Amino acid sequence: MFKKILIANRGEIACRVIKTARKMGIKTVAIYSDADAQAMHVQMADEAVHIGPPPANQSYIVIDKVMAAIKETGAEAVHPGYGFLSENSKFAEALEAAGVAFIGPPVGAIEKMGDKITSKKIAQEANVSTVPGHMGLIEDAEEAVKISKEIGYPVMIKASAGGGGKGMRIAWNDDEAREGFQSSKNEAANSFGDDRIFIEKFVTQPRHIEIQVLADAHGNCIYLGERECSIQRRQQKVIEEAPSPFLDEATRKAMGEQSCALAQAVGYTSAGTVEFIVDGDRNFYFLEMNTRLQVEHPVTELITGVDLVEQMIRVAYGEKLKLKQKDVKLNGWAMESRLYAEDPYRGFLPSIGRLTRYRPPAEKHNDKRAVRNDTGVYEGGEISMYYDPMIAKLCSWGPTRAEAIEHMRVALDSFEVEGIGHNLPFCAAVMDHPKFVSGDITTAFIEEEYPEGFTGVELPKETLARIASSAAAMHRVAEIRRARISGTMDNHRRKVGKDWVVTLQGEHFEVKIKADKKGATVKHADGTKQRVSSDWTPGDSLAKLKVDGEKLVLKVEKISGGFRMRHRGADLKVHVRTPRQAELASLMLEKTPPDTSKLLLCPMPGLIVKVDVEVGDEVQEGQALCTVEAMKMENILRAERKGKVSKINASAGDNLAVDDIIMEFE
Predict the structure, then answer these.
(1) Quick one: angle between helices 308-316 and 11-23, nearest 10?
(2) pLDDT confidence tier of residue 324, bands split at 50, 70 and 90
(3) Residue 657 and residue 601: Cα distance in Å, rounded?
(4) pLDDT at 485 over 70
(5) Is the pLDDT of residue 491 over 80?
(6) pLDDT band at 488, cuts 50/70/90?
(7) How far apart are CA 477 and CA 429, in angstroms?
(8) What stretch of H or E contains 409?
(9) What is the dihedral of CA 634, 89, 319, 310, to 10 degrees?
(10) For residue 566, with 0-12 CB atoms within 10 Å meaning exposed, 13-18 middle and 19 or more buried, which class applies?
(11) What contacts 24+ positions apart, CB below 8 Å, involve 580-586?
């Protein structure tokens, strides 16, 4: 077996590979840019080599620099993770020339299947049903418009070397095709060093289902079931699960066998993924093959018990697969929520900064449930603007889909992240959404269910009552502590009352508390009683309670007169007052936010790529005003209404912070 491998990647996937290598007794080498000098993967590896400045095109995807690190450390093999150089045939060729093993497929397979245009042609030649599209290279935006018209709108504009949603745009008309072509081309060049673009028909209302394959160099190939990846935003997966709630055994078998046949047709070895669009009648269409480990591989590992990274290393070393197709059994159900450094309340725009608090739920694995968190960050670490915004993958497993969802709900409620905007509330909202719970989902789920974006969650009154009871019991505990402070004035003893009014989400709950050593009984105005027990103490940021014997997990932060509580995607200001305080509070005026309707504010920290208008220009609703780049994505900011530009405060090349004023309108 290899004695030392280099991981040509960063973040959570580098940490993931290091864990398996360590389990196998293999030493590891990390590479890092200036921005990642203190990163977790650097700390975990046995050795680490600096390879350049923060931008990936000056460090992580510079083949010569990676090869120099391999030579310096004497690594015998390289695991590329995903993204960066993972599907770059030139990198695989360089390794082969240097006598270093590539923990991935052969160069020929990467060239044939890693390139989306070539892979579609091969699939067509093999009589695999594919989505209509233009497989040739496209020179400019006008040619893109012409091709889009021939295919018929809507179309998908995609980077040939793309992945992870980078370099992808949906166009519904000529203007969007023209604009999308240029943005996709720019993103592809910046992210992959390859700006080739192709166009295909965008199939509305599809499911995105993929098959995991594993092949060795001895002619063996198996498939390890499928993954449902339909919960996507801007073609970037957010939540994945395995197996799919939609497939039947016959379709699964057909897709699996076709995937293996396709892999073997190009001499594929290692782990790979064949992606399909599946319509409502379970007809499936080949999309592409990812010649690498997928981001969402943990859900397959959880339902099969197969360590895919270990299998990749063994195959690269020349070993035969010990698993046969008949040995692959799908056990239970697994969910994955991708934790992104992006603010769902600001249209999911990237968020960067320091993680002032980062406390994932405890990992566990038994025959009833599992919680797993693949991460590459730590509390106090910095989230950089230079790389992908995903900072962790939270996974759950249960014997059934309903149980896997419930375990994920509790895990999301228990995950503490502060200091940056993040999408935990959104993931929690999806887990409770009736359509998701039913399994009736398509790739249009987020677009259809959150057409105006994510603004938070309105909890049902039954849940609010449970939170109100908990808040009252917790407030009582805090009041008792405050009443016991020493050094108080004589004759000013503080008494803790029994009657409280709890206000949250516009609802008022009048309650009376009767406490004992084991907890508190909270009586509501309508006569209902709830028993609350917990070991929460003031200052704890996470409260794990039981209300009438049922688990309730709340993220807690002290505010004046109560708490900020977060639960199941809802962010609540919870005030606990005496009846007299509540009466007076009802008379107070609410502070209104400042008027920013005539300002264009920068929605995230980023770089101004270009400004599309000038002072004095009349702009129309939906017109592009400027482009901001952050975390390898270009974001076009558009006019919300008609107006006239009166002042421009930023120009191309400027780095802006959140809410910096870009331009003003009359």
Answers:
(1) 70
(2) very high
(3) 10
(4) no
(5) no
(6) low
(7) 30
(8) helix 401-414
(9) -10
(10) buried
(11) 581/501, 582/501, 582/503, 582/508, 585/503, 585/561
Q: Which of 393, 397, 396, 395 is nearest to 377 (CA)?
A: 393
- Is residue 198 within 8 Å of residue 138, measured between CB atoms? yes
Residue 494's pLDDT is what? 64
**What is the C-alpha to C-alpha distance for residues 460 and 391, in angstroms, rounded to an integer?**
31
Can you tell me the distance from the alpha carbon of 564 to that of 562, in angstroms, rounded to the nearest whole number? 7
Q: Is 12 exposed, middle or buried (0-12, 13-18, 19+ CB in 10 A)?
A: buried
First vs last C-alpha separation in the chain? 69
DSSP 213-244: EEE-TTS-EEEEEEEEEEEEETTEEEEEEES-
Could you tell me which of 116, 117, 93, 118 has the C-alpha nearest to residue 105?
93
Q: To which residue do tokens 């023209």 refer?
A: 178
- Write the CA distances from 501 to 467, 480, 524, 548, integer angstroms: 13, 17, 10, 20
Buried residues in 392-410 as b, exposed as e (16+ CB within 10 A)? bbbbbbbeebebbbbbbbb
Instruction: Compute how many other C-beta atoms are within 10 angstroms of the C-beta atom of residue 590.
Output: 4
The pairing of beta strand 101-102 with beta strand 519-524 = unpaired
Give residue 126's pLDDT band: very low, low, confident or very high (50, 70, 90).
confident
Over residues 251-260, the mean pLDDT reads 94
Quick check: 199 and 158 in contact, CB under 8 A?
A: yes
Report the alpha-carbon distance of residue 579 to residue 592 in Å, rounded: 26
Instruction: Give the angle subtended at the CA of 299 by the CAs of 231 and 16, to the nearest 5°.
Output: 110
Is pLDDT at 559 greater than 90 in this prediction?
Answer: yes
How many CB atoms sit inside 10 A of residue 126's CB? Answer: 14
* DSSP assignment string, 164-186: TTTTEEEESSHHHHHHHHHHHHH
Distance, in Å, from the CA atom of 200 to the CA atom of 159, rounded to the nearest integer, reads: 11
Catalytic annotation, residues:
288
Q: Are strands 507-516 and 499-504 parallel, antiparallel or unpaired?
A: antiparallel
In the numeric block, the tokens 């003893």 are attached to 493
Scanning the structure block, which residue is given the tokens 């908990």? 470
- Buried-state track 213-228, b at ≥16 Cβ within 10 A, e below 16: bbbbbeebbbbbbbbb
pTM of the model: 0.84
Q: What is the DSSP string of 552-592?
A: EEEEEEEETTEEEEEETTEEEEEEEE-HHHHHHHTTSPPPP
DSSP state letter for 393: E
74: tokens are 């004497």
Q: Does residue 501 register a pLDDT over 70?
A: yes
For the chain, give the number of residues. Answer: 666
- Maximal C-alpha separation, the chain: 92
| Banded pLDDT at 334 (limits 50, 70, 90) | very high
Among residues 215, 217, 229, which one has the least CA distance to residue 298? 229
Give CA–CA dist 597/586, Å, rounded: 29
Residue 62 DSSP label: -
**Is cis: bond before 154, omega within 30 of 0?**
yes
Query: pLDDT tens across 510-525, in order?
Result: 999 999 989 999 999 9
CB-based contact 344:455 (threshold 8 Å): no
138-152 pLDDT tens trace: 889 999 999 999 988
The answer to whether residues 7 and 17 touch, using CB atoms and an 8 Å cutoff, is yes
